[in-house]
Amino acid sequence: MDKFSGKIWVLGDDIDTDIIIPTEYLALKTVDDMKPYAFSPLRPELAGQISEGDIIVAGKNFGCGSSREQAPEIIKALGIKCVIAKSFARIFFRNSFNNGLLLIENEDLHDVVKEGDNITVCVNNFIEHENKKYPIAELPQNLVDIVNAGGLVKAMRKLNGLD
Amino acid sequence: MGMTIAEKIIAAAAGVESVKPGDIHTVELDRLMSNDGTTHLTIDMYNKLKNPHIADVNKLVWIVDHNVPCDSVKTAASHKKMRDFAKEHGIKFYEGEGVCHQVMMEKHVTSGELIFGADSHTCAYGAVGAFGTGVGCTDYLYAMVTGHSWLLVPETLRFNLTGKLPEGVYARDLILTIIGKIGANGANYMAMEFGGEGLKTLNMSDRISICNLCVEAGAKTALMEVDEITLDYLKEHGREPKHVFKSDEDANFAKVYDIDLSTIKPIVAKPHFVDSVVDAKECVGTHIDEAFLGSCNNGRIEDLRAGADIIKGKKVHPMVRFLVVPASADVYKQALYEGIIDTFMEAGAIVMNPNCSVCWGSCQGVIGENEVLISTGTRNFKGRAGHKDSFVYLASAATVTASAIKGEIATADMV
Amino acid sequence: MGKTIIEKIIKNNTGIDAKPGDIVTVNVDRVMIHDIFIPFVASKFEEMGFKKLWDPDKVVLIYDHLVPASQVDDTRHFKVGNEFVQKYGMKNVHRSDGICHQLMTEALYVKPGNIVFGTDSHTTTYGCVGAFSSGIGYTEMASILGTGTMWVKVPETIKVNITGKLPDNVMAKDIILKLIGDLGADGATYKALEFTGDTVENMTVASRMSMSNMAIEAGAKCALFTPDEKTAEYCEIELDDKQKDLVGDEDAVYCREICYKAEDFVPVMACPSNVDHVEPVKDLVGKEIDQVFIGSCTNGRLEDLMAAASVLKGKHVAPFVKLIITPASRKIYRQADENGTLKILADAGAMITHPSCGLCCGRTGGILTDGEVVVATNNRNFLGRMGTSKVEIYLASPRTAAACAVAGKIVEPV
């Protein structure tokens, strides 16, 4: 997880949870059932184009809107390695880490990249794009703990003496 | 040779002296009703015609009632298509005003008319002595474009009613008994005609309920003799009869049934056929997940009153979803006025805006896998109310309400 | 040094003098789970290995998004919910009584100073009675159900001061929309909002609820009002000293202060497809509409229905326009029935549905299609929220919405 590269998909500002997964599909039984409808109001074809290991680069306020945890779960299930945005909405931020989806805040990258570019991410350190490095902040310790445990479910299982 | 009511209406609509069963006649139609179940298909076909036009726009009544309020982008598109077409052509259009047949009874239908409806329960209009029959959208389109259609004159089954329904027994129990007796195809292609002294004990709501369900015995139409009750109803709604027909003494009936209303008991139709009827007592104790009081069959003020009388001061069983759906906006307003809406709300029912609801089974209260519904709706076919593996029992408003309170099938005397 | 309201609530709860940016573990007073997420909460809870709820009486389960069921699998959520309730000995369940956020305060589950989490972003609503409440995901909810605790980062506070008397055609909804427009959809992300000034002091709890409800649309973690006599009456309590003290100190540190004069507000709308895309109604006049929706946890309360009725009385909805009214709770529906409001609305041609989330959550209740325009009183107008992505959603106050329904186009209310 420390260092990886991937192809990027570029999205704009205020990508809300209804775009990530519309309410209409929320009562489907599994995240896999919902997956094809990811981003459908905005880009219906996108879910089918994303490959394992791809990265999303977005503008500000990514994940704003509802508390639906399917939003980060679906992004993870699509194979997205991490989401890099100018900023994230807070519920989405918590939900992502609880599900082991890595989020990285960066102000500048979104303005220079184009869809299809390749970038390299070095967690807690920098992002590299076309030989230019963009520094990124270190994650707070409590989030590192959750990520290290493998998500909140695993952390709780440990607490309950199960794993 | 004498004629039955059905024969007289067809003769009048065909402009001939007399008709007999088996004849095919071209008839002039008085009214054409269509709802959001199929109108979008009719419009699609209309738009493909070489020279599309509407014979007489004043005969058309379009009603959005099945998926109201709209539940999906698919139905939203078909509603919009219907709304835009109605607006463009000046078609009488209702949306959210109630179930089509109830709206038609309240606003349009009169005695002696011949009406096509793109819905099988159009036979309900026989309650005021109108020949209503359900057609598919191709037949509907032809009638819409030409103003007429062809009709095979049906044989008539005559039901002579005597006596009076006992306390706690309803028109719904009567018609389920009849369907059980003659079977789901017992009146195929035929008209079911009701008359006799016993008819006078049945109010207009009862009559609509009876005629409405006749299609479940396969009937082409249902007709009741016009009497004071009919004429009062029409007058109240600001309408005059077109014709008042009675069957001639020497009319030829395929079969005559004599039914003593006083012998009727509370009935339940079991899954998955309307003619699978048993004494309600035989189903007592059957677990239910949902109860539905509403539909063109039993969503009128009289039905709501019957339910409210039973549930007043009691509570809906906590594990049961009790849907109460007035059949029209007028029924809803009357129920508000009488305090009936509050009685149901206080008891914990889910009171909805007028619409077809779970009777149509595509939204607004559908049931899930292995769930059981007791309903005043029209049909209990497999999958009718939602999941393909679910179960629907049909019964009167009273039995449905009593069951909602008990959490299992129960009759009104048990709560 | 002085404290903001959120800092006081956290201090009272944890005993820690925490400052913004600190991470603290709080003891949760109440949680709310709704029907959409109960199956996920239940499975995560069991996957985590918990055997019992930390306190069954502190857990509230509410069915509202799926009432009545519009898809055949919807009732599975009720089944799972009912099994969970039975297995873990819960008492607080509402199966058809209205929208979760309305019921949490109306049914007295939330008190001033409480810390409450819910599996819904609009959980910020309970700030209307001075509670710190916020939305979380189902995994986190499952962990609270087992532990009764949650970590939070103490937020900075933005103070919003409003003074003066509002024009007659302006409602609390117009204020919060204007604020969101000014802050931007992420203007309060990770932060608390704190409302002060005589305008909000003079507001009903219901109006405050509309504002705290929508704070999330500016990204806020919570939105707080100082509890007062009206709060006490609404919550059916007497305020204790700690609750009375839930007011921002003079020397508290705010990251930003915003002041408004009530007289300057005008009716506004959030235009497609962002809640912060706010324009005065007068600049939008004449736009033809297809549907109006009055309801939701933002604006489905008695005063909202009465505001709509005052506009609709003796009038009728424009031809070919639908007016859908969805009261926020069973209690509100009954009150509106009793005081004649429903009669006025029904006479005007409104469809009055059972209390539920209805159209706001976009699963049923009036879905629209390409090219259609809806004026709605709820909290979100995101792309595709109420049908296809070519539906235009304008958010407005109930008064504005009702006026538009009569006109069949966007008009300014009087």
Question: Largest beta sheet of chain A, briefly?
Answer: 7 strands, mixed
Helix content of chain A: 25-40%
Structural class of chain C: alpha/beta
CATH class descriptor of chain A: Alpha Beta
Task: Based on Cα principal axes, name the global outline of chain C.
Answer: globular
Name the CATH class of the largest domain in chain C: Alpha Beta
Cα distance, first to last residue of chain A?
22 Å
Please state roughly what percent of the residues of chain A sit in beta strands, choosing from under 5%, 5-15%, 15-25%, 25-35%, 35-45% or over 45%: 15-25%
Number of helices of chain A: 8
State the strand order across the main sheet of chain A: 4-3-2-1-5-6-7
> Could you list the spans of chain A in which at least 5 consecutive residues all have pLDDT below 50?
none
Give the end-to-end Cα distance of chain C, rounded to a whole number of Å.
47 Å
- The CATH homologous superfamily of the largest domain in chain C is called Aconitase, domain 3
Second-tier CATH architecture of chain A:
Alpha-Beta Barrel
Low-confidence stretches of chain C: none
Oligomer designation: heterotrimer
Number of helices of chain C: 15
Describe this protein's structure.
- The complex is a heterotrimer of chains A (163), B (415) and C (414).
- With 163 residues, chain A is α/β, with parallel strands linked by helices.
- Chain A has a single domain (3-159), classed as Aconitase, domain 4 (Alpha-Beta Barrel).
- In chain A, 31% of the residues lie in helices and 20% in strands.
- Chain A has a seven-stranded mixed β-sheet, with helices on one face.
- Chain B has 415 residues and is of the alpha/beta class.
- Chain B has two domains: 5-262, Aconitase, domain 3, CATH 3.30.499; 269-414, Aconitase, domain 3, CATH 3.30.499.
- Chain B has helices spanning 5-14, 39-48, 73-89, 100-107, 137-146, 171-182, 204-213, 228-236, 295-298, 301-311, 329-338, 340-347, 397-406, and strands at residues 24-28, 31-35, 60-64, 92-95, 114-117, 131-134, 148-152, 156-162, 191-195, 221-224, 255-260, 267-269, 277-279, 290-294, 321-325, 350-351, 372-375, 391-394.
- The radius of gyration of chain B is 20 Å and the shape is globular.
- The model of chain B has no long low-confidence stretch (mean pLDDT 97).
- With 414 residues, chain C is α/β, with parallel strands linked by helices.
- Chain C has two domains: 5-262, Aconitase, domain 3; 270-407, Aconitase, domain 3 (2-Layer Sandwich), CATH 3.30.499.10.
- Chain C is 31% helix and 19% strand.
- Chain C has helices at 5-14, 38-47, 74-88, 100-106, 138-147, 172-183, 198-201, 205-214, 229-235, 241-244, 296-299, 302-312, 330-338, 341-347, 398-407; strands at 23-27, 30-34, 59-62, 93-94, 115-118, 132-135, 149-153, 157-163, 192-196, 222-225, 256-261, 268-270, 278-280, 291-295, 322-326, 351-352, 373-376, 392-395.
- In chain C, the strands form five sheets. Chain C has a five-stranded parallel β-sheet with strand order 4-3-2-5-6, with helices on both faces. In chain C, strands 16-15-14-17-18 form a five-stranded parallel β-sheet.
- The chains are: A alpha/beta (163), B alpha/beta (415), C alpha/beta (414).
- At the A-C interface, helix 1, helix 5 and helix 8 of A face helix 2, helix 3 and helix 5 of C.
